Amino acid sequence: MVKFTQIAMKILLVDDARSVVQVMTFRLVSYGYEVVYAENGKVAVDRFSETSPDLVLMDIEMPVMNGFESASRIRALEAQEQWAWTPIIFLTSSDTVQNLVTAIEAGGDDFMSKFVPEPVLHAKMMAMGRIATLRQRLSVANEKLQNLADHDGLTGLVNRRSMDTKLDLLWFESIPAKTAFSLLMLDIDNFKKYNDHYGHQSGDVCLRRVAHSIEATTLESNATGQTKDAFAARYGGEEFAVIVPAASRQAVQALATTIVERVRLLSIPHELNAEWGIVTISVGGAYMDVAEGELVSLFRLADARLYRAKSSGRNCAVMED
Question: Which of 29, 42, 74, 238 would bridge 191 by S-S if both were Cys, CB 3.0 to 4.6 A apart?
């Protein structure tokens, strides 16, 4: 038999009858649970959003909004979040077949009499407590899995798939808002030569150090208010991208220049990187005063400027034609 410590459930109790609320609250609190009260279905929806309960005990017939409508709205709220589901048990004094069917169709999970015997109530709450504990564990596990799916295993940066998702969202938010939008494409100079000369394990270490420097510089720019919501991603191989929404041209230029300087200051030896002798990075940037048109055009422009940075001797950032 598997045993584990249950969490102390938070229960949202929804009923307009004060006498029922008082009795039920006393019983639930005696089991060690926290009870949040709502006097009708409309208030219940607000309380649900505010308190994130582990269980909802919902009356059916109430003024303002009945339990069925309230349950439907709660399920609609949860549909906007990943992995969200909270058990809803309907409370009633008339456990008719039609009420049971309607309760389940509205998003309910169980049906219980307001006058349920003490042992039955206690047993049901113990079962709900186990479910709440497992839900919490599952939520933590899912969050970890999502984090693994969204980040590059080597560098820890946002991966290409996740970058595309975040980028599309930011782009479509920027267009109607008519805000600026920028993209930096970054490439480690002569990285193939680095791998051939120092070996792939050293190449992995180099990638991680450069990625960390790019991310740290980007986060620092956000923290100082020069940029907001900028993020770094691994684009592929030795290529990286930095997405910069709603920032000034000067701020984006400063970020690109600082990234180049910070990578150079890492002083990672690279004998085959002509002229420099250390690992360097080249940056091509594209800036729009107002986001419009196709996002692919921004990538093409940034790529063309990255090529110019390479052609101009590397270890630099090119932001203008």
Answer: 238
At 147-186, the pLDDT tens digits run: 888 899 999 999 999 999 999 999 999 999 999 999 999 9
pLDDT tops 80 at residue 82: no
- Does this model's pTM top 0.90? no
Q: Label residues 181-193 b or e (16+ Cβ within 10 Å = b).
A: bbbbbbbbbbbee
Report the side by side order of strands in the sheet with 317-318. 231-236, 239-245, 181-188, 281-288, 317-318
Rounded to whole angstroms, the Cα distance separating 293 from 282 reads: 27
238 is known as an active-site residue? yes
* The pair of three-digit structure tokens given for residue 38, joined into one six-digit string: 């709502």
Answer yes or no: are the C-beta atoms of 284 and 184 closer than 8 Å: yes
Residue with tokens 């609320």: 21
**Which one of the listed residues 34, 39, 143, 238 is annotated catalytic?**
238
- As a whole number of angstroms, the distance between CA 49 and CA 52 comes to 6
3-class state of residue 38 by DSSP: strand
